[in-house]
Amino acid sequence: MAADKELTPTSYIEHHLTYYSTQFGEDPFWTLHIDTLVTSIILGFIGIGFIWLVVRKATPGVPTKRQAFVELTVEFIDNEVKNSFHGNRHVFVAPTALTIFVWVLLMNTMDILPIDIMAWIYEHVFGLNYWKTVPTTDVNTTFALALSIFFLMIFFSIKVKGLGGWMHELFCTPFGKNPLLWILNLLFNFIEYVSKPLSHSLRLFGNIYAGEIIFLLIGMWAATGVVGTFFGVFLGAGWAIFHILIVTLQAFIFMMLAVVYISMAHESH
């Protein structure tokens, strides 16, 4: 944080929650969070690049630790998809699930990095006074991911059932084909469709954002003195260890919900 500014709890938290962004025009809707986009893209290339390098050097003999780790991860996700997805497009869904899990896990894991050390690096090495490290604490990221799954769900619904079959399902389920019930059926299905991307995105965002806030509160405690620093380091380490479980679990849940939603798109009511 800039040295010429007085450190207060409010300024400390506001500083770490401020995006490095750019706005196009006067409408704040057209604002790009540069830190979220850049970090997400870099982590995506790291995840894909790591798996590509390991697979490229894979051998049929005794695997290395990295190869064994990747094989276990791929096999685990493949089995989970097979247990949840009963359609005939498993070849597409399994790689999609693997991509989602690895990418979301990497973005979530950025929350484990010491937030003040990262802020110091961004400011003094890269000259960036504001830079949010964790993409999944940005609701735009989680909502964009959820919308991608939502559009895949719509795509497969139309592809499997046809446009007419999908429209028939919208107007005639779950209460029946009577024309008097069409509006009720459409309203019911509309609520279901809207709730999926909302719950899908906000669940991930809420859990990771809450973890970031707790890290900030612990960091403020560490700034109160020697005793506060001791307990801050102790509590921060404890919360980081516990948070490893949270970031992994949330990546897994997000992936499984995506698989379930795509699987539901293949089913007829």
Descriptive overview:
The chain is mainly α and 269 residues long. The chain has one domain. 73% of the residues lie in helices and 2% in strands. The chain contains eight helices and two strands; from the N terminus they run αββααααααα. The protein has helices at residues 9-16, 34-56, 65-84, 90-109, 115-124, 139-172, 182-222, 226-265, and strands at 21-23, 31-33. Strands 1-2 form a two-stranded antiparallel ribbon. The longest helix has 41 residues, at 182-222. It is globular and about 70 Å long. It starts with 8 loop residues before the first helix and ends with a helix. The model has no long low-confidence stretch (mean pLDDT 87).
